[in-house]
Inverse folding.
C-alpha cells in the first residue's frame, strides 16, 4: 500500500513539474531530509536555521530551532555540524526541553560530471548524545548511530532528481537504513518547488516510517533564502507515524553571492 502511494505520488509530481518553466537545478538538503552531492564551495559557509515540528497521536517533538552549519573545504568536501534545541511532549506527561544529539559529518563528492549531469557523494555522519541529562529525562534516545549514506543527483528529462540511500550502524539499538528521493525544479529565478519521498527504519525488528512532503526555497535576497516544507506519514497516524511534519526557516550562504534576479535586467539577458 505504501509502495503504491509512493509510485503514484512520484508520477504525479513528475507530470506537474515537467509543465513548469526551467531555470536552475533543484537540490536536496534543508528543508528536506534527503541530502544531495552539493557542497558550499571552497571556504564558503551554508548555515540553516529552522523550526521543525513532528506531530504524532498524543505526542510531539519540535526542533526549536534546528541549527545546521556547513563549511566547504575545496570544491568537493563539506564539513557539517547539526544540533537542535528540542521541545518534547510525551503522552500523558509534562513538556520537556533539552539539547538533542550532536550530528557531525563529512560529505565528499567523489564523482561530478558537471552542471545538470550525474554527481555522486558519500556523507558519513555521527549521531551522538551530549554530556547532559537528555537521555535520562527522555528527550533523546540512549542509542547512538554512525550513518553511512550515498547520494546521487542527475537530470531526468526536464526534472532534477536527488536520491539518497544509507545504512545505520547503531550502538545500543537495532541497525537500520534511510532512503530519500527529491524531485523538483525552479519555477522562477527566485522560487524552487519540490516533492520528497523519505523512509527510515530498522531491520530487527522490521519497522519503517515512510513520509511524503512538498516544499521549496525562495531567494529573498543574497545571501538569504526562505526554506519551507510540509508533509505527513504515508500510513495512518499513530504513536510512531506522523500526521504532520514540517520545516520553516532561513538559509544563509556566505560570502554572499548574486542571484540572477539580483542582477540588472540587461545582465540577466546575457
Amino acid at each position: 500500500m505504501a509502495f503504491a502511494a509512493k509510485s503514484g505520488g512520484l508520477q504525479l509530481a513528475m507530470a506537474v513539474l515537467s509543465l513548469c518553466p526551467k531555470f536552475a537545478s533543484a537540490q536536496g538538503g534543508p528543508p528536506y531530509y534527503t541530502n544531495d552531492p552539493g557542497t558550499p564551495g571552497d571556504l564558503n559557509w551554508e548555515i540553516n536555521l529552522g523550526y521543525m515540528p513532528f506531530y504524532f497521536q498524543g505526542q510531539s517533538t519540535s526542533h526549536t530551532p534546528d541549527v545546521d552549519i556547513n563549511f566547504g573545504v575545496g570544491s568537493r568536501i563539506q564539513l557539517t555540524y547539526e544540533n537542535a534545541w528540542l521541545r518534547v511532549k510525551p503522552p500523558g506527561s509534562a513538556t520537556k526541553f533539552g539539547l538533542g544529539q550532536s550530528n557531525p559529518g563529512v560529505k565528499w563528492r567523489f564523482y561530478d560530471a558537471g552542471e545538470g549531469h550525474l554527481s555522486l557523494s558519500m556523507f558519513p555522519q555521527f549521531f551522538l548524545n551530549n554530556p547532559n541529562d537528555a537521555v535520562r529525562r527522555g528527550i533523546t534516545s540512549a542509542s547512538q548511530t554512525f550513518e553511512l549514506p550515498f547520494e546521487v543527483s542527475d537530470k531526468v528529462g526536464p526534472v532534477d532528481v536527488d536520491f539518497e540511500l544509507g545504512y545505520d550502524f547503531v550502538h545500543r539499538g537495532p541497525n537500520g537504513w534511510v532512503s530519500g528521493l527529491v524531485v523538483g525544479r525552479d519555477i522562477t529565478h527566485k522560487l524552487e518547488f519540490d516533492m520528497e519521498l523519505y523512509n527510515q527504519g530498522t531491520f530487527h525488528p522490521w519497522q519503517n516510517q515512510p513520509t511524503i512532503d512538498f516544499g521549496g526555497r525562495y531567494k529573498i535576497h543574497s545571501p538569504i533564502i526562505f526554506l519551507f516544507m510540509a508533509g505527513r506519514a504515508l500510513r495512518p497516524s499513530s504513536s510512531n507515524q506522523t500526521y504532520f511534519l514540517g520545516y520553516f526557516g532561513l538559509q544563509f550562504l556566505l560570502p554572499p553571492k548574486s542571484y540572477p534576479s539580483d542582477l540588472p535586467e540587461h545582465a540577466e539577458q546575457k
